[in-house]
């Protein structure tokens, strides 16, 4: 894992997008197609804007997976990650294939099985992720399941996670934030050939320190990225402010 720190969140997102674009273009050139995972949330705004403005990516030869979706929310809801991705990526660059989690599916377990069948046929070339204020990776809140081999799982959202979603303005009240979601598992994320993790903002500083300088532990889910040989973490000076080192 390699950490890079930038002066501003815009520079952080732009640098992550530079690497991401390079990987997508080289993978398409070598294999004819690139499969990627993309995260959502306020921390990804600058990264996603920069990535979708990059020239030379043959988006028609890409397939997109998203990381997680609330259970019981339709894509019309302001907090829907499908809506987020359609507005900020899918409708902008039109990937050749898009694999959305249907959060309002009547049977969430069956929806997990559907997604598991789809992703089992693909090798993920690059995962674009962030980490939460509680250190979560996707919606794998602490203590995260580091062992399950199932690609998509049903998870419970802890209060810190739900408070972050409310604090970012996605919901009118804390009580409105769902308590369950479908999330890509830790092991599935770690199977990605390359992981690009973009984490700006001072509200992430504590999680950054715990995950990248503390013990690798399910209590700090994103700490698992330190075990990935090809993971790149992009921070701004605010999110890196508590680190004693950046290597």
| Overall 3D form | globular
Mean pLDDT across residues = 96
The radius of gyration is: 17 Å
* CATH class type: Alpha Beta
Secondary structure: helix percent: 25-40%
Amount of beta strand: 15-25%
- The helix count comes to 7
Strand arrangement within the widest β-sheet reads 1-10-9-6-2-3-5
In total, how many domains does the architecture comprise? 1
Instruction: Provide the succession of SSEs.
Output: EHEHEEHEHEEHEHEHE
Amino-to-carboxy terminus distance: 8 Å
Largest sheet: 7 strands, parallel
In CATH, the architecture is 3-Layer(aba) Sandwich
Low-confidence stretches: none
Summarize it.
This protein has 247 residues and is of the alpha/beta class.
Explain what this protein looks like in three dimensions.
The strands form 2 sheets. Strands 1-10-9-6-2-3-5 form a 7-stranded parallel sheet, with helices on both faces. It has a 3-stranded antiparallel sheet with strand order 4-8-7. By secondary structure, the protein is an alpha/beta fold. The model has no long low-confidence stretch (mean pLDDT 96). 32% of the residues lie in helices and 19% in strands. It has a single domain, classed as Rossmann fold (3-Layer(aba) Sandwich), CATH 3.40.50.1360.
Please outline the helices and strands:
Elements: E1 2-6, H1 9-31, E2 34-38, H2 45-52, E3 62-66, E4 68-70, H3 81-93, E5 97-99, H4 108-119, E6 126-129, E7 152-156, H5 159-167, E8 180-184, H6 186-190, E9 194-199, H7 205-213, E10 231-236
Parallel strand pairs: 1-10, 2-3, 2-6, 3-5, 6-9, 9-10
Antiparallel strand pairs: 4-8, 7-8
Helix pairs in contact: 1-2, 2-3
């Amino acid at each position: 894992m390699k950490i890079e720190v930038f002066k501003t969140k815009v520079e952080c997102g732009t640098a992550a997008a530079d690497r991401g674009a390079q990987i997508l273009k080289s993978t398409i050139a070598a294999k004819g197609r690139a499969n990627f995972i993309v995260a959502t949330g306020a921390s990804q705004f600058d990264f996603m804007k920069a990535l979708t403005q990059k020239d030379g990516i043959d988006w028609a030869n890409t397939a997109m997976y998203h990381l997680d979706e609330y259970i019981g929310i339709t894509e019309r809801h302001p907090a829907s990650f499908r809506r987020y991705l359609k507005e900020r990526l899918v409708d902008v660059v039109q990937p050749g294939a898009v694999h959305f989690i249907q959060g309002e599916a009547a049977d969430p377990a069956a929806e997990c099985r559907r997604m598991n069948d789809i992703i089992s046929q693909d090798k993920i070339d690059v995962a674009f992720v962030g980490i939460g204020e509680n250190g979560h990776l996707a919606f794998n809140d602490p203590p995260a399941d580091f062992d399950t081999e199932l690609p998509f799982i049903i998870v419970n959202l802890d209060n810190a996670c739900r408070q972050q979603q409310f604090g970012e303005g996605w919901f009118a009240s804390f009580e409105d934030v769902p308590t369950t979601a479908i999330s890509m598992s830790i092991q599935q994320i770690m199977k990605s050939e390359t992981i690009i993790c973009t984490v700006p903002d001072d509200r992430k500083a504590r999680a950054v320190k715990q995950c990248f300088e503390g013990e690798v532990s399910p209590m700090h889910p994103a700490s698992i990225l330190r075990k990935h040989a090809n993971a790149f973490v992009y921070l701004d000076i605010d999110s890196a402010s508590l680190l004693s080192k950046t290597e």
